[in-house]
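How a chain folds remains the central question behind the approach discussed here. In the encoding step, the backbone of a single protein was reduced to a row of integers, each denoting a local shape. We regard such an encoding as a compact summary of how the chain folds. The sequence in question and its structure tokens are set out directly beneath this paragraph:

___
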Amino acid sequence: MTPPFPHDQPAGAVPDPGPAEFAQAVDQLRSVRPRREMTLTELPAPQRLAPYSYAVGAEAQPPGLEEMATGRLILLYDPAGQEGWEGQLRLVTYVTAELEPDLAADPLLPEVGWSWLTDALDTHAPGYAALAGTVTQTTSTRFGELAGPPAMADLEIRASWTPVGDQAGRLDLAGHMSAWCALLASTAGLPPPGVSALRGVR
């Protein structure tokens, strides 16, 4: 199946599709077409986390705004499973976005950021287990030769979860990819599809 987004493979390289279950999961991830404000790119996947892996990078930017959210989603497959996975497949994500400093100071921001993930999974993914992760808010000030804006702020969401099949054991990784795209859109401050964003409001 031809992926609907660019992929960074060396010229002439033919990636190993792996076992049928893993290859099918990759095809399901590739089948998702993101909204127009989002760009997906296949990336080299880490090789030491599991026998088989696949990675996607993404950027999301509201029209007319400088703020941008970026992220990475990694699919891991281990036929023997791993401790804590509760399955053979595992999805790992890292999402980060620049924020206005006053938003980064909000003590409720981590809970809000985590709810973006759980709401996206509950809406789009057919089932998941062993969800774990962290939400980090940071601020920094530049000095000397790096002097610039008075303050900068970032939000980071790191999480992993195990896709769960239906009663017949069928897995739908496309739903999990859609959930991840929804998380990235929320982190970037994108409005729901079909709704215009308010300029300057995150």
